[in-house]
Write a structure and sequence with these properties.
This protein is an alpha/beta fold and about 190 residues long. Helix content is about 55%, strand content about 15%. The chain is built from nine helices and five strands. A five-stranded parallel beta sheet has the order 2-3-1-4-5, with helices on both faces. Helix 2 (about 30-40) crosses helix 5 and helix 4 (about 60-70) crosses helix 5. About 25% of the residues are buried.
Length: about 190
């Protein structure tokens, strides 16, 4: 199985690119959202650690946002609780797809949390800053302060780009992304 890790700036289109490969995708953001909606155990752990912010199940993302904005330490508390469960979900995904030719890892903190393997193929999604800002502002509940907190826990984009074997330029058109993906797949398959 070939593991492809998708890297890039927040809002660069990593999830969009990951889906366009046409192979099974592990999307960590979707998995976290699912935990907040469905996992009572995670709710209880977060409520215990952040009683001023986490009140009701399913967990409202606004409560998570308020906790993160209120205190830098809160983000680390959330990550510590959620990350363990996401690793379990990743292992289930990997086992389920062990016979697939390729799988895609769309995990925002892939390098930061040392989730990648040495053999993983890393692809950096590069987008213009102006396009990224435009995409981010379209998101529901976009918050510039929250964005800054998340950027602070991530490695520099220049480092991620340097660590990547390939770069896909994302101008947010399907044609350009598909062309970049096809060029990469020709080289790795």
């Amino acid at each position: 199985m070939i593991r492809i890790g998708i890297l890039g700036d927040i809002g660069s289109g990593k999830s969009y690119v990951a889906k366009k490969f046409g192979f099974p995708v592990f999307n960590a953001d979707d998995e976290v959202a699912s935990l907040y909606r469905k996992n009572k155990k995670i709710f209880n752990k977060l409520k215990k650690k952040l009683p001023k912010f986490i009140h009701s199940f399913p967990i409202d993302k606004k409560e998570i946002s308020r906790a993160i904005l209120a205190n830098k330490i809160n983000l680390n508390k959330i990550i510590k609780i959620v990350h363990l469960e996401i690793r379990k979900k990743l292992n289930i995904f990997l086992n389920k797809n062990k016979n697939k030719k390729i799988i895609i890892l769309d995990i925002p903190l892939l390098l930061e949390n040392k989730i990648n393997n040495k053999k993983d193929i890393l692809i950096y999604v590069e987008s213009k800053k102006s396009m990224i800002q435009k995409q981010l502002k379209r998101r529901k509940n976009f918050n510039q302060k929250l964005l800054k907190k998340f950027k602070n826990i991530q490695l520099a984009n220049s480092y991620k780009k340097k660590k990547s074997q390939y770069i896909i330029k994302n101008d947010f058109t399907q044609k350009t992304v598909k062309k970049g993906i096809n060029n990469i797949l020709k080289k790795i398959i």
